[in-house]
Write a structure and sequence with these properties.
single chain; Rossmann fold; two-stranded parallel ribbon; 12 strands
């Protein structure tokens, strides 16, 4: 396939580029310098020039607290640009795959959120991402929305890589005990994004690693253990003590109703992928 990837230098974008290239795809990798997704005319011209079979959008403004203070930019990147990319895909007859977030839910549900649950975003970031989902689906019937969350991986900095670096330095850590999610390994997510692009079955998918949902504290303790830093001191803290500008859902665990129905195998349990990641960062 001819696959255009936006946000190609980010954690998920780099994983997608590597995975698709390894499969023998012709990959057109774009970062902000080569393609500003908020420049609608540039996007249109780039898509027309490169004529991809699929576009995998990994570009986003993911600074949740930053979005809270700049709704204009949040919607420009996470909503209107997504709509324009979907429309540009329609013009060149490409499937459009875009990443959304577990934060579109309010976090009050017990258990896992599925596609049957109504989104109820609690922050500007989440509202903009949900608006981007809806605009993209309207702009192109061949849109695949992938909601994910708690993403960790070997490229760039993320919650888990920071925790493991600090643990190996012997620093004291703080971890939230009352916020729950489903960890997702970027390389597993990248493989599923490519798989969905090939299947070309529009819809909203929840893509996370298998296993039970965990709190940040549980996730941190398991990561520290796997890294061989069990003596690292971890302080349990509650969400309310952090006083962050943007609200986050207390529970954003995801489960997909569609994947098994269309023959997709479950992703590995997050503990298994965490061990793979820990080995990568240790080598």
């Amino acid at each position: 396939m001819r696959i255009l990837v936006t946000g190609a230098v980010g954690m998920v974008g780099r994983a997608v580029v590597e995975h698709c290239a390894a499969r023998g795809d012709a990959v057109f990798a774009h970062d902000r310098k080569s393609l500003d997704i908020t420049d609608h005319e540039a996007v249109k011209l780039t898509f027309e020039r490169e004529r991809p079979d699929a576009v995998i959008n990994c570009a986003a403004w993911t600074d949740v607290d930053g979005c809270e203070g700049n709704a204009t930019l949040a919607y420009s990147v996470n909503s209107y640009a997504v709509e324009n990319m979907a429309a540009s895909c329609r013009r060149v007859r490409a499937v459009f795959v875009t990443i959304s977030t577990d934060y579109v839910f309010d976090g009050t549900k017990e258990g896992f959120y599925t596609q049957r649950d109504d989104p109820k975003p609690q922050s500007v970031y989440a509202a903009a991402k949900l608006d981007g989902e809806r605009r993209a689906i309207t702009a192109s019937a061949r849109t695949i929305v992938v909601r994910s969350g708690w993403i960790f991986g070997p490229f760039g900095r993320n919650f888990l890589s920071t925790i493991m670096e600090r643990a190996r330095r012997g620093e004291r850590l703080k971890a939230i005990s009352d916020a729950y999610g489903t960890p997702t390994y970027a390389c597993d997510l990248a493989a599923r994004l490519r798989e969905l692009a090939g299947i070309d079955l529009p819809g909203v998918y929840h893509v996370v690693n298998g296993g039970r949902g965990v709190s940040y504290e549980e996730f941190t303790r398991e990561a520290v253990k796997i890294s061989g830093c069990e003596e690292c001191e971890i302080e349990s803290v509650s969400t309310d003590t952090l006083h962050r500008p943007a609200a986050r859902p207390r529970n954003s665990r995801l489960r997909c109703l569609l994947s098994e129905a269309i023959g997709l195998t479950a992703l590995p349990d997050w503990e298994t992928s965490l061990r793979v990641f820990a080995k990568q960062t240790a080598d």
